[in-house]
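Fold it.
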Amino acid sequence: MSTAATRMDQDTRTLYVAFELGEKDWKLAMSPGLEARPRLRALRARDTSRLLEVLERERKRLGAERVASCYEAGRDGFWLDRFLRAQGIDNRIVDAASIEVRRRSRRVKTDRLDAQKLLTMLQREALGETGVWSVVRVPSVADEDARSLQREYRTLVKERSRSSNRMKGLLASQGLVAPRIDGRFLAWLASARLWDGSPLPSGVRARVAREYERWRFTHDQVLALQKERRERTKDETDRSLQKVRALFALKGIGLGAAWTWGLEFFSWRNFRNGKEVGSLSGLAPTPYQSGASEHELGISRAGNRWVRGLAIEIAWGWLRHQPDSALSRWYQERFARGGPRARKIGIVALARKLLVALWRYVETGVLPEGALLKA
């Protein structure tokens, strides 16, 4: 393997670079091949001009004709990949969960060692080794921006729920049950009485009132995003939402699920088959076989957890709103007469089949067998 590595490096004259991206500093590991000892450099985070200087100096020193790089997917997102490719650097973003590690109970871990590990794996991939890691597919700027509204909506809904739960918890600590939180909540709060008829303590009342103002502000933003989402969905001239409208047209699929699946999952992935759909959703099975031991470990739970959670939720709704579809009949025949555990296993299988069927639907326009559109 060392001979092959040396020959490959001489033929291509490539400088391999691995980034370990920190909040304040970046670590770079650079080498022309597996035989050479890596050179390590540290520079200030996001200092792109200094980065290009270091890479160009190292490339000239080694006489390399091209540069190949990699870094782990994380907080820095995709901008660095776009920057490096604009400079003619062949970059790839690596799924951190796919990087192999030692299975000892403890292992040494530093930024320097992580960068060297990435560098070694990058060189192994260049030599033709397959299955080294999983490379993240980078969306375009437009595709990434299209996800912003739905992601902000999910964040605001969670923040609104937190405020609501805080108010209910504060009132419960005083022996009170909070009513429905709406525009009449402050009037109820002003007249609330404790178990002995005394008014609510002023400190607790003020704290709940301030929490309600935060809830009100977040609630207004949620309503504004809901309105914007509905209006954009109705706008037929917006070509980026074609798949969203196609999904929303099906009975049993709401606007939130259509936006999440249409923009997070189906819009720019370019799936080749149903196995890739199931794998990215984390609904693929994980068999375990070793000698005489053979059993299932359940679903992989990899990929986008929002899509996976919605798939389970919509699968239950599919049984209710699309009872005559082929998928619903399949579930009823195989799992409906079983116990609670069998039905839960069955709904996961139905969710995976439903995702694959919807992928084919948005790509080809062919409805899932027996499925109905909304009136």
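The chain has a mean pLDDT of 91.
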